[in-house]
Amino acid sequence: MCSGKLQTGLLVAGYFVYLLAGAAVFQVLERTAEKQEKMAAAQMKEAFLQNFTHLTVAEMEQFMKNLTEAIQNGVYPVGNESQIEDSNWDFSNSFFFAGTVVSTIGYGTLRPKTAGGQIFCVFFALFGIPLNIVFLHRVGKMLSLLCKKLGKFLHEKGMRKKKIKFLTLLFFLATGILVFLCLPSVFFQITEGWSYSEGIYFAFITLSTIGFGDYVVGKQPGRNYFSYYRTLVAIWILFGLAWIALLFNLLTTVLEDTEKIIVKDLYQIGKVSKDNEASQQIRCWPAQLIPEEELQPPCAEGDAQKIESLPADSEHTKNEKKTFSYSKTIAITCED
Fold first, then answer.
1. Is 73 helix (H, G, I), strand (E, B) or coil?
2. Taking a C-beta distance cutoff of 8 angstroms, is the pair 212, 106 a contact?
3. Residue 97: how many other CB atoms lie within 10 Å
């Protein structure tokens, strides 16, 4: 027991140290390049405001292209120059990005743009994704252990096994939906200004690792977020992934069991239908076409042997009588 707890503690500590180290490296590699890109976007905006009445169609097209590229790279040229100091690659955002890499969510709104950052991201994901799988497996075991303890407690209270299984499953689903979907959606509604349905949508799309990127936390222009907001969201994602992975495994098991039941029922229905069809065909046949064994009433094996032996015995008796009569005639002839 102590050894298992020690292994779990070391795994959790190593996992978060790996994420923290990755966040620090991403911050160092990407922050300077992002600052330069923001300054270039601000200069582009300033030049547009000074000359927009004299721009040609080609210059306007080039401006729109540069603006679109800046937005795709996470640079929003909105507001004054003080926003240049607000970085998408501060430590909180870098930790959030590291978490989305190892969890394979990949929103696409924040990504490394320098050569060093891209190469590091490849190796960080190469070792981080397997580590994340091990971490989620261990957290899933802990959640399963809690459900087993609940089942053991209910069993000691004298509850039946089927009821225990149902209540344990209900507890697992209700607790997970409340902690990882419902409550975070309220939090996102307050912090991001989304509707509650949008919060539910974002939570599920994120935890299921679909990650469309249409809704991302901490990216609303003009909203003030508290420090380490995205770090807190990243931790919610990491533990929520373990819960939803168990939920998907449970649903997979239910679907497989349902499939087996359906296949079994279809086989039984097909077998009964086949037997009924064969019986109906026999009833419709003329009597001369029905095999004799199906026409004969059931009888004992000994009686059947007796019935079959009667003609043979009669024939044998006739032969004996003929032989005796022939012998007697010969004897009389010889005497004469």
1. coil
2. no
3. 26
Cα separation of 182 and 197, whole Å? 10
Distance CA(111)–CA(122), nearest Å, equals: 12
Tell me what pLDDT residue 116 has. Answer: 95
Give just the sign of the alpha carbon dihedral 197, 200, 203, 205. negative
Distance CA 250, CA 152 (A): 20
Q: What is the pTM of this model?
A: 0.73
**Who's near 236: CB < 8 A, 6+ residues apart?**
180, 184
pLDDT tens, residue by residue, 85-127: 678 899 999 999 999 999 999 888 888 989 999 999 999 999 9
Check: CB of residue 212 under 8 Å from CB of residue 198.
no
Locate tokens 């601000």: which residue? 42
* Alpha-carbon torsion, ordered 172, 175, 181, 185, to 10 deg: 180
pLDDT tens per residue, range 215-236:
999 888 778 888 889 999 999 9
Give the span between the Cα atoms of 319 and 282, in whole angstroms. 42
Is the Cα torsion angle 219, 220, 221, 222 positive or negative in sign? negative
Q: Which of 149, 74, 82, 86 is nearest to 112 (CA)?
A: 74
